[in-house]
Amino acid sequence: MATSIQQYVSHFDGIEGLKKVETSIPSPGPYEVLVQIRAVSLNYRDMEVINGEYNHHKAVNQGSEIIPCSDMSGVVTSVGGNVSKWKVGDRVLSTFVPDHKTGQLTQEALRSGLGLLEPGVLATYRIFKEDALIKTPDRMSHEEASTLPIASVTAWMALNGLRPLGQNGGKGEYILLQGTGGVSISGLLLAKASGAKVIITSSSNEKLARAKELGADFGVNYKERPDWENYVMEVTYGHGADIILETGGSETLSKSFACAAYGGLIYCIGYTSGKIQAAGDQPNVNVMAISRCLTLKGVVNGPTDRFEEMARFAEKHQIRPVICKMFKFEEVKEAFRYMRAGSHFGKIVIQVAQ
Ligand SMILES: NC(=O)c1ccc[n+]([C@@H]2O[C@H](COP(=O)([O-])OP(=O)(O)OC[C@H]3O[C@@H](n4cnc5c(N)ncnc54)[C@H](OP(=O)(O)O)[C@@H]3O)[C@@H](O)[C@H]2O)c1
């Protein structure tokens, strides 16, 4: 058993400012466990955090440094005296906002977010409260499972978050995914396992081909076909997309309104093409929402009960998360540079220990 923790620290000054530091391993408190972290997956948010750009949540009041990243899979190596949920050797997954247990997120719960405001998981060991973890699905490697907490839970919430807990749907629905990053590819796997029909956009024909190998029914290159919203209407015979995982933001939102089905759901998730400006010449999206009876719903990940629901579903359907590239713990900066370049398909994972 190691006697020290290796961990990365960011001062919000970009990739090159990341520093690896060593500290001693603490003992878990009565309701805590010590976890040896085996794999960490990267999210768009982690890049924003280390660049000092994650500033749109009012609840966030960051200090001067942070251990980045929130998504890990690892093994319990010691437990506090009152811990009943876990034992040494259990494989466990982090939850992004541990205090968000069920229902609607609150500003207070958001403060428990890993990798801001709470220390993150880009480390060899970390202490967790026992109720801040869920079981790692048996069929998945640590690397695969580490991709679930943010990307897959968020996609799951888009697909099922407005349905009653435990009553998954999606059969026959048209699901639109934007780009081929972590959320979209997780959404592709979950939507196809639910029996939905998937339309995906990408800037790369090669990535579209890979998405089709994973089951996407339709793919459109948004660079070659800037009116991809018309493509969506064409392939759905004028129906439009029932659920849109709106990850694009400024360049995609008005197009999403134009290709949503009547009564459809635009699940407002992200802004890979930029944040939406409130003023200027933006189309009047609220009028479009009213006239087509749409709901535009924002999301910050999802609660623990939905995570467990999604993990059970992934286990049942033998879903194997898509890992684009793995990096060693010493190669964290290369991993972030790779992410910044945007050539990834699915998830990027740091192998912290084998
Ligand atoms: N609200 C939440 O709880 C939540 C949770 C997770 C993520 N997010 C947000 O969702 C977004 C996606 O996150 P992620 O982790 O999946 O990111 P990611 O893995 O870094 O995905 C990046 C991908 O976005 C695509 N993209 C870039 N510009 C685009 C455009 N104009 N139109 C369509 N796609 C475009 C690209 O796909 P191609 O290379 O195929 O073109 C790129 O590979 C981010 O803004 C993130 O902050 C929010």
Describe this structure as you would to a colleague.
It is a single chain. The protein has helices at 44-50, 107-110, 142-145, 148-160, 182-193, 205-213, 228-235, 253-258, 285-291, 304-316, 332-341; strands at residues 4-9, 19-24, 32-41, 71-79, 91-94, 125-129, 133-135, 174-178, 197-202, 218-221, 241-246, 260-268, 295-298, 323-328, 347-351. It is of the alpha/beta class and 354 residues long. The chain folds into two domains: 4-147 and 321-351, Medium-chain alcohol dehydrogenases, catalytic domain (Quinone Oxidoreductase, Chain A, domain 1), CATH 3.90.180; 153-298, NAD(P)-binding Rossmann-like Domain (Rossmann fold). Strands 3, 4, 5, 6, 7, 14 and 15 form a seven-stranded mixed sheet that branches. The protein has a six-stranded parallel sheet with strand order 10-9-8-11-12-13, sandwiched between helices. Helix 4 packs across helix 5 (182-193) and helix 4 crosses helix 10 (304-316). The radius of gyration is 20 Å and the shape is globular. The structure holds NADP nicotinamide-adenine-dinucleotide phosphate. The site of NADP nicotinamide-adenine-dinucleotide phosphate (NAP) has 32 residues, from helix 1, helix 4, helix 5 and strand 9. InterPro entries: ADH-like_C, ADH-like_N, Aminotrans_II_pyridoxalP_BS, ER, GroES-like_sf, NAD(P)-bd_dom_sf, Zinc_ADH-like.
